[in-house]
Structures are given as structure tokens and as C-alpha cells.
Amino acid sequence: MSVSSERSLTTAPRCVIVTENVSEILRFAADGVRGGCALVTLVGIRGGAARSIGAQMAVHADGTYCGFVSGGCTEAAVAAEAVEAIHAGADRFLTLGAGSPFIDIALPCGGGITLAIHVLRSKRTLEAIVKNITGRRSVALVFDPALQMMTAVHDSGISGWREGRFFRVFRPRLRILLGGNGVEAETLLRLATGADVEVTRIDEANGSLRPMIDEETAVILLYHDIERERALLETALASRALYIGALGSQTTHNKRRAELMRAGYKELDVDRVKGPIGLFKTKNSCALAISILGEVVGVYEKHIEGNEAKTPDDQSGQL
């Protein structure tokens, strides 16, 4: 890092919030705008990298930061450079690893990354992005290096460069609607929450379930009585749910399938219900929670990858 970076800081940069949650990072950035803040975005990768294109961190003028653009090995150095940009009042690019002039900062993966450091001048755009993320709407933060500005647009494309501007696309995060009151449900709730997955508890009497189900929502029913799950299962089958899974042995699932078929559901619909639920069989609640969460996250990641593969480059519209 340059000498001026060192002069800008009275204390060493430090991470004050350990998170990859995009809403937390953007809120941290918005909170720092008045005192000086920069948003750092991973906009280029050469070879391997610990984070994906679009990874972000926010840096306050005092050197405090949150978020990650690498595996944690470069963030302090990046924060120091961001503080220099804040004091200079100008955006900049920073290259690290392969192809970088900073030979003392190497990436363990052996690759190289390019970072865009944008000095924030208003929190309005960030607040618009967070509002859309909270509302489960696809949205993008667009960085224009020529104008040194960021805008928010509706977008369902892919994070990356388009005609000289970088689009950081935010898609709805994985959400689980969880039915059941036993130890299995409680254990899954704790595990998923710890993994930063949004979880909403539901029950048989929940008449407003369907509007909550979108293509990034998994419906997981952990009842020991299949009659209790019936209404929720039918609501889930009438939706575009990402994943539908229900507790029980193969025998129980066969009975579930037969009852749904008798009720008039087609085999293609019934096949949407995963049972026995999870990646592997187990009767231990902790292992079952791991099995279920692993399966659901895997389905979600494939869904996101599939959408990115079939989405045209430009699906944007101004907010």
C-alpha cells in the first residue's frame, strides 16, 4: 500500500462485522456515508479466487470495515486503500495477486483480483437496493467508473461488466417455510438460522402461506402425522416453490403419494414432493437437519446457476 494510505489511518484497519450478508454490508455502508465510506466490489478475477464476481465490502473513513472480497487475507490492505480513496474523494481500481504491482500481497489461491473502490456520496441508492432485497425483488447496483457514480436498477441478469459499467446483481436469497413443532423442526431452525438462511415458521392454520412462496422458497414439512401436513402440502404444490420436502420413511412417503394421487394430483406434481427428505437417511435430529439443509442449499445454488445461464445480459430497468 502507498505511504499516503498509512498517513490517512491513525489505527490499523479492522473488521467490525464478520458477514457476507449483502443487506448487512450495504446498511453498514449507508451508515458510514456521512463520515466517509467506500464500497469495494470484486469486478475481475484472474485464475482462482476465494470469492465470486460481485463480492463486496464496505469501509468507513476510520478504517473499520465489514464484508469480504477474498478469503480474509487481503481485506485489511484493501481497507487501507479504500481509506486513501475516501480522503482523496475519488474512485479507483486496485489489483492484487497475479498481475498486481503490490508484490508483497499474494493471494494463497495463486490468482489475481481487480477491485473497484467507489467513494459513496449518498446513501439513497444503497437504501433502494436494500429495500428491494428485503422485498425479494431482483435488483442491481450499477457502477459507472467514467462518471464515478452508482445507480440502482431492476435487473435479473448476471453480475459483470456491460458496456463499460459493472452490474452487481442481487437475487432473492434462499428462504425456508418450516412446518412442524418437534425436535427436528427446532434443530433445523437453529442450523439454518446460523447459516444465514431466512426461516419462517408456518402451521396448518396458516391461510396466508401461498403469497409467501416464490421460486427461491423451500417448503419443509416436518410433521410425524401426514394429515397435519396435508393443507400446507397442497398449498405448496399450487405454488412455484423451489423445493418441497416432507418428513417420513419410504413407507410413509408412499402413503403420502397415494393419497395425493387419489385426491386428483398428477404424478408429475406428486414427484415434486421429496421424501424421504434430505441427502441421506438418519434418525438423529442434528444429522437430519444437516441432511435437509445441504439438500435445499444445493437445489438453490443449481437454481441460481440455471437462471444465470439462461438470462440475457441486459434485463435492466431504472428504479
From TrEMBL:
Gene3D superfamilies (alphabetical): NAD(P)-binding Rossmann-like Domain (3.40.50.720)
Family matches, as InterPro entries: MoCofactor_Util/Proc, XdhC_CoxI, XdhC_Rossmann_dom
Start and end residues of each XdhC Rossmann domain: 178-296
Annotated ranges, domain XdhC- CoxI: 36-95
Domain of life: Bacteria
PANTHER family reported for this sequence: ALDEHYDE OXIDOREDUCTASE MOLYBDENUM COFACTOR ASSEMBLY PROTEIN, MOLYBDENUM COFACTOR INSERTION CHAPERONE PAOD
Name of this chain's protein: XdhC family protein
Protein's organism: Agrobacterium radiobacter
